[in-house]
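Example 520.
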Amino acid sequence: MTRSLKGEIFRNMARCFWIITFISLICTKGSEGQASGLQRFPDGFLLGAASASYQVEGAWNVSGKGVSTWDHFAHTMPERIADGSNGDIACDSYNKYKEDVQWIKSIGLDHYRFSLSWTRILPNGFNTPVNQDGIRYYKSLLEELKAANITTVVSLYHWDHPQILEEMGGWTNELMVRWFVDYAKVVFDNIGHLIDIVITINEPKLLCQQAYNSTWKAPGKVFNDMGHFFCVHNILKAHAKTWHMYDQEYRATQNGMIGFTTPVRGWVQGEGVTEETIERAFQFDCGWIMSPIYTGDYPEVMKTRIAERSALQNYPFSRLPEFTDEWKKIIKGATDFFGLNHYTSSMPTFDPAEALGTFASDTNIIGIADPSWPSGASGWLHIVPEGIGNVLRKIKDTYGNPPVYMFENGVSDKGEIEDYVRINYYHDYISEILTAIVRDGCDVKAYTAWTLLDNYEWEAGYTERFGILKVDFDSPNRTRSEKLSTHWWREVLRTRTLIDAREFTSHLRQRRREGSTFEN
Ligand code: PNW
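Predicted structure in complex with 4-nitrophenyl beta-D-glucopyranoside:
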């Protein structure tokens, strides 16, 4: 028997196995519906997966690409990466994008969120010259997705900006606003017609805190407890300018939507958690980024506390910059949706140690994790599904129930193929999201799993895996293969139903005991 015939038979057996498992699931459910775990997604709800250029593309120096902050950071300071690795090859998606799209199609995802590498398009950072190979690459990826009827969600920027611009101050230099808008214009002019949803900038808050007030992420500079505030200030301006440019010059012909996405940490009740600690934590987390968009300015509590503490530190100004009235007008309302990334929660309580300086002391809040909470492979990622419901209800109440597009949610492990933790995580978080939609009227339009492929997890290198597909980083081919969660997602998408994760896996175990196997 030829190898390919054997492969075909195996694949068919695997397919049968999954269909039988699913049918048995349906049969044992009867008509109990939602109560026992079968929950249907609202009509038109988008279910997709996400990635980011530096985490998956590789090909860091081919076809005219320039050097990004992450190329530079991982090459020159490998000791800051858990396994000393870099994204030089990563998942090799630059070469394997057609296969990636086939996987996306085979799982049945509605949308794919990926990001553009600024230096692949503009090797010098500025808008001249435009690297035609970069345009060609993203154009063909977008066309491939369109041909497969997949909604395209493109982040213009997911943390890998040109190193040359970083040498000139990066996001702490206000000129970056102009440079970013120039870059966005090149993107809209060349490939904007193929993009359904534009995300200007991924997670300004996390980027600014970890890149300009800690050594964790590129460029890893620590600027006297204020680099993060300047960085967010400039990013909000760059985002708003780009939104207006799209709105005025491209929307009518390109018919897309444009916004950005922010991570919001959840909370649950516990000792020392009060309305005030929840509110304070929320305003310094979500409000810092989203208040300017919805109200035109930073939250009052941030303005007051940071001004007071800056004065105590003898600064002649507040470390939190102020927007002029003109900028307030430009920023307010500059979004088509509320982009939300969410992973974890804690119990926000007041910090008894009122130290000066650090972000934690500006808020005077610390987030406590209950030691009994399970965690993913990432130390920070406690699994607390109830937190996402609280976040969605708070967004609804604070910002007038905006349309929420969830652009990231997921959990890490060590790369297990039988990734029960991941299936349970997705199930339990999505169940909370569906409750927030159906019971509480939250206007959630989309859910995006982080991430499509196991990939380069920034400072954790390849030591933590978030993929719903496995990637073999030891094979030169970076072979992709299925995990249990691949199968679970495929069934969820086929049925548009939140399939009970525990029943799914217990059926699987039962069928295993009966002698069936499944191929990964
Ligand atoms: C995301 N938190 O950020 C990034 O956008 C991805 O690139 C990254 O791979 C993924 O996290 C997993 O680390 C985060 O609430 C957003 O602590 C929020 C948190 C952490 C990371």
